[in-house]
């Protein structure tokens, strides 16, 4: 049989030294664990402090919120009613919009003519030649011929005599006595019976002049424009 190797023997000094080293290692390990424990306790205390402070902050916020007035209810939007856009050739209040020159339909002539719109003139005027006063059914009537330089033929018109007026000519001091007739006319979609003085306007640019008496309460003049209203046609006249 083989012999077991001899067990090494320690001297008393070596044994004491080994025990001392083990004690040192154990002491070092305990000190490290103690230090870690202390650090953990410090962290735990700090964490508890933070939690307490946070709770206090939440309480303060809740207290402030409790003192705030309740939020007012949101106002419901009120639908706005849009004003209808004015129809073409009219103002927002429904008046006829006319320019410095317009087309005018004269029922008695069964035709349309160019008219100058003049707010400086009181009465309206229509070109007339060969003016004759006559009697019909006991009333005075007027026969005249509507003529102008741009017209090929004269148009005979007969209408009741309304009255006579005296008009002072701009180039003379004398008063000119003129007959006045009432004629049905149309501008745009507006039909009116208007009074016209009879005067030879064949040498003027426009055979018809529209004054303030015709325009008041029914029309607004834009002197910067012309022919805002369309030219009337026979099929448009009712």
Describe it.
With 238 residues, the chain is an alpha+beta fold. The chain has 2 domains: 13-68; 96-236, Beta Barrel (Cathepsin D, subunit A, domain 1), CATH 2.40.70.10. It contains 2 helices and 11 strands. It has helices at 12-67, 212-215, and strands spanning 96-99, 101-106, 111-117, 124-127, 129-136, 139-146, 155-168, 175-187, 190-199, 208-210, 219-222. The strands form 2 sheets. Strands 2-3-10-4-9-8 form a 6-stranded mixed barrel. A two-stranded parallel sheet has the order 1-11. Strand 8 and strand 9 (190-199) form a beta hairpin. The longest helix has 56 residues, at 12-67. It is rod-shaped, with a radius of gyration of 56 Å. The chain starts with 11 loop residues before the first helix and ends in a 16-residue tail after the last strand. GO terms for molecular function: peptidase activity. Residues 12-50 form a coiled coil. Residues 98-232 form the Retropepsin-like aspartic endopeptidase domain. InterPro entries: Asp_endopeptidase, Peptidase_aspartic_dom_sf. This is ATP-dependent Zn protease.
Helices and strands, in order, run as HEEEEEEEEEEHE
| Fourth-level CATH superfamily of the largest domain | Acid Proteases
In the CATH hierarchy, the architecture of the largest domain is Beta Barrel
The CATH topology of the largest domain is what? Cathepsin D, subunit A, domain 1
What is the number of strand segments? Answer: 11
Taking the alpha carbons of the first and last residues, their distance comes to: 150 Å
Helix content: 25-40%
Overall pLDDT: 85
Count of discrete domains: 2
């Amino acid at each position: 049989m083989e012999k077991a190797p001899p067990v090494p023997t320690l001297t008393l000094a070596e044994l004491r030294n080994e025990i001392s080293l083990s004690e040192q290692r154990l002491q070092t390990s305990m000190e490290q664990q103690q230090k870690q424990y202390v650090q953990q306790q410090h962290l735990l205390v700090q964490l508890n402090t933070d939690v307490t402070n946070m709770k206090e902050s939440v309480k303060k916020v809740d207290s402030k919120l409790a003192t705030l007035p309740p939020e007012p209810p949101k106002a419901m939007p009120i639908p706005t009613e849009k004003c209808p856009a004015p129809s073409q050739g009219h103002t927002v209040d429904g008046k006829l919009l006319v320019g410095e020159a317009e087309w005018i339909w004269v029922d008695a002539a069964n035709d349309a003519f160019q008219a100058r719109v003049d707010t400086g003139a009181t009465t309206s005027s229509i070109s007339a030649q060969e003016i004759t006063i006559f009697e019909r059914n006991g009333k005075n009537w007027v026969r005249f011929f509507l003529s102008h330089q741009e017209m090929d033929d004269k148009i005979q018109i007969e209408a009741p005599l309304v009255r006579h007026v005296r008009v002072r000519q701009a180039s003379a001091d004398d008063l000119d006595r003129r007959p006045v007739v009432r004629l049905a006319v149309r501008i745009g979609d507006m039909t009116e019976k208007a009074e016209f003085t009879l005067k030879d306007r064949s040498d003027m640019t426009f055979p018809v002049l529209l004054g303030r008496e015709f325009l008041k309460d029914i029309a607004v003049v834009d002197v910067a424009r012309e022919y805002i209203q369309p030219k009337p046609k026979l099929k448009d006249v009712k």
